[in-house]
Amino acid sequence: MFPGQGAQYVGMGKDFYEQIPICKEMFELAGKAGGLDVAALCFEENEQINITEYTQIAMLATEVAMLKAVEEKGVKPDVAGGLSLGEYGALVASGVMSPEDVFKIVRKRGIYMQEAVPQGGAMVAVLGLDTAVIEKICEETDGCVTVRFRDSMAQERVAVENLDAYFADKFMF
Question: Domain range for residue 21?
Fold first, then answer.
């Protein structure tokens, strides 16, 4: 199971990079495919690690590097899955796509997503609240706030801008 965006942190994958040659190769391949220094992005203190344009290639490089380390030990998955961005790691694990191809695609994906939702946007998962209530809150909230995706009757994912304060004021105990 490969994680999605939000699991990133400065230093992720550094031990793998420093100790396992195939991992270093994957970080370098990601950097070449993405046109940036992915190792520095992952290992050095910086603000970019949490900006979608950069986060996505950094997360994927780390995931693929760790996958390759495990594969070198003879472990191959019977199935692979991922959460959002993590689906690309799963595609590599399943042999559907090469690391180089997913690095190129995900670098562009991160750029396009950043362009579509500039910094300052956010998303929140709302559990156990009626859809009509969520839609009413969105209507009453300043800025661009919409229900974008319905996972199930029990969960709504809401693309929000500055909605966290509203929820904190109205629903925190």
Answer: 14-116
Mean pLDDT within 124-152: 73
DSSP 160: E
Is residue 78 located within the same domain as residue 150? no
Contacts of residue 168, Cβ cutoff 8 Å, sequence gap at least 6: none
Q: What DSSP assignment string belongs to 122-159?
A: EEEEEES--HHHHHHHHHHSSSS-EEEEEEETTEEEEE
CA distances from 93 to 22, 31, 66, 87, 106 (A): 15, 20, 11, 10, 15
**How big is the chain, counted in residues?**
173
pLDDT of 120 = 62
The neighbouring-strand residues paired with 146 are: 159
Instruction: Give the pLDDT confidence of 96-109 residue by residue, as tens digits.
Output: 999 999 999 999 99
Tokens 């396009």 belong to which residue?
112
Flag whether pLDDT at 37 surpasses 90.
Answer: yes
Report d(CA 103, CA 94) in Å as an integer. 15
What does the pLDDT read at residue 96? 95
Question: What's the pLDDT at 171?
Answer: 53
CATH code, domain with 78 = 3.40.366.10
